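Quarterly update from the structural biology core.
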Amino acid sequence: MQLSKHSAPSLIIGVYRPPSSKPDWYIHFKELILAASKVAPIVIMGDLNSDLTRPTVYPGRALVESIKLAGAQVPSYEPTRISSTAATCLDMLHSARL
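Predicted structure, tokenized:
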């Protein structure tokens, strides 16, 4: 994908991680990110069912580690889903510097 006429190509990774995924899911995701980051800057988007309002415990911690591997930053730990019983940050878009 080329973002503008003068930009370099970027790789968009759209991903869904089911809530019942086993911990090895993130091992494979990190391998994908490492391989993809050798090709082009990465944009990660999707529903990873990893709550970034809890970035120090699994699976939030695994997602933060994955985002850093991609050369990206977590722009916000603010909730993206708020209900009467919970507030979570599950849906996101992260990119390396493009």
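The CA atoms of residues 39 and 92 lie 22 Å apart.
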